[in-house]
Amino acid sequence: MRNGNATSTSRPGFHTHSALRAPHSAFYISFSAMPVQPIAWSPNGAVRILDQRALPEARIERDLETVDDVADAIRTLQVRGAPLIGIAAAMGLVAALRPSRGARREAFLARLAELVAVLGATRPTAVNLRWALERMRRAAQDAPGDGGAIWDRLVAQAGAILEEDRAMCRRIGEAGLPLIPDGARVLTHCNAGALATGGIGTALAPVYVAHAAGRRVHVYVDETRPLLQGARLTAWELTEAGVPCTVLADAAAGALLRAKEVDVIVVGADRIAANGDFANKIGTYALAVLALHHEVPFYCAAPSSTIDPAVATGEGIPIEQRAPEEVTAFAGRRIAPPAAGVLNPAFDVTPARYVRAFITDRGVVQPPFGAGS
Amino acid sequence: MRNGNATSTSRPGFHTHSALRAPHSAFYISFSAMPVQPIAWSPNGAVRILDQRALPEARIERDLETVDDVADAIRTLQVRGAPLIGIAAAMGLVAALRPSRGARREAFLARLAELVAVLGATRPTAVNLRWALERMRRAAQDAPGDGGAIWDRLVAQAGAILEEDRAMCRRIGEAGLPLIPDGARVLTHCNAGALATGGIGTALAPVYVAHAAGRRVHVYVDETRPLLQGARLTAWELTEAGVPCTVLADAAAGALLRAKEVDVIVVGADRIAANGDFANKIGTYALAVLALHHEVPFYCAAPSSTIDPAVATGEGIPIEQRAPEEVTAFAGRRIAPPAAGVLNPAFDVTPARYVRAFITDRGVVQPPFGAGS
User: With CB atoms 3.0 to 4.6 Å apart as the test, which of A65, B64, B124, B320 could cross-link to B47 if both were Cys?
Assistant: First the structure.
């Protein structure tokens, strides 16, 4: 079934608590405002995802069982965010290989290679997808025995990828905490939060950690056209977690910076080149220029797996061009004339020189990033 | 009737011709691709407007007869664009005062003052609105006689405002022509075209004149959130006139400039202060910063009536804050969570130092603009 099984619009199975706002005291630590969790195993071993296309209007979970389910969910952005795509692909491999458990070693590995190729072709820009698939492939190669034994190893490996991502998010948040003082006004673009990862996000991780530590934080959220991941996803997960936020049209960020209403800008990344140039949601580059012009610190937060040492500079990062309909139509209404051309790159590249620092699970660091970094 | 009378979704009464594309020769002058006309008198003397909220999906004309019709049409952006708002207010005064023609002088002038107050309060930023109303008020004051005679003078004055705007647009286009060489790639924001004026627009006027002169011009159109005047209106009127254009999300303009795909940026203005600071659609300022950073010439095109010598700098221009629903909902769908705050300024102010020059009906000029300029 191409879109997986829509299970519910209520909240079963997701560890979301209604927000308990932390009092504004530096001495109070709140663990209660746990951000939403966008991926989990279903009881019968399918990949259960929160369909991010439907938020914030509806909370729809889908169970993905086949490689087509998973590939379609990634391509259509039911599951999105560079780290989460990697996790979904790894977990999707496990679910899709379940019927092959009885196969002999060579047949199982051949089937695995097919599925890796399908999933690897879903989106070109994020490196985490290829990183996760390669890690799964190598785990399978290194495991002894036939299908059943290899599959068990893949289950463990997918679980490790998810758990490590959760831990990486936490470390990013802790590394970024000193950059988010009490009273900070943070501007972010797109969604690099819990909905983009297995944990508390990348760009939003320092915000969540600061909020949990009792610091007052206000997040300005670029709505992020065309698919509105800022308005629909970031604002939603922040309000669910009790973090105050304000949504604005992307084009309003300039006036906001000119009015000195922003103390710090934090964005995520879909791929970071060895020299520190990085690809992120279209619009990130314009924000970086505005930040430079207004002398507002501009940070990129990402797990180490987002660094692609095989790509020397941003010139080498492939940029996904998405369908014109994302720009020309909305909710079934046409918003541009048929005769007009459309430019719809999903990402842009921000050169490293615009970035004050990279907030990673290995601390707040500067490029270049070698193979061992 | 609050929204006027919706008359038709086809094309009666508007002078729109299907585009006749000019061959790419500098020797060929085309007058055939006449831009759309968004305002006219109806046969029975109402103000007939093209409802700009419905474009590009539907072409709906409305006949406005009362001051409430006209005020509502301006407030709800059925009629928008600084010059067109002024024209609509002037013509609206005429239509709304028709029933008062039999009144004695003092009663007629008292009623006029009431209507001027209602229309003047519809939108705060554009100066053309107040300029047109003041001009109508003074014409009435200076006219001798009772209601009927004064009304006749107002008919002539509203007609003059419309005709002068048409001529101003033409002169702006001719003044800007040298800035649009053959092959030019022009970036614009919002709609400062035929749909914003009585003629061929302000920012788009040089484009239309260059196109008519046989020059190849390509226009990149910022979609212009939240109300999408770029995608819905600018792209529509350009394609109707046969001018090639490409729509992009506002946030994509940075990457476009970085890729050196833009030769010149031209925007309109809603009010220009004496020192040359100007208010225009939210997002204009961010474009100006990007233009400076990428050394792309950035022009503001506007009729002289947009200059407000009573306002010394941009600090003195009031900025309209519009309803949050423009950002949080679209076509009946909620796109941001209810608990999130919203920032929705209709305009921002771009300081004069970002502007290469002002393209006006008095030529390509530099600030400061005195009372006599």
Answer: B64
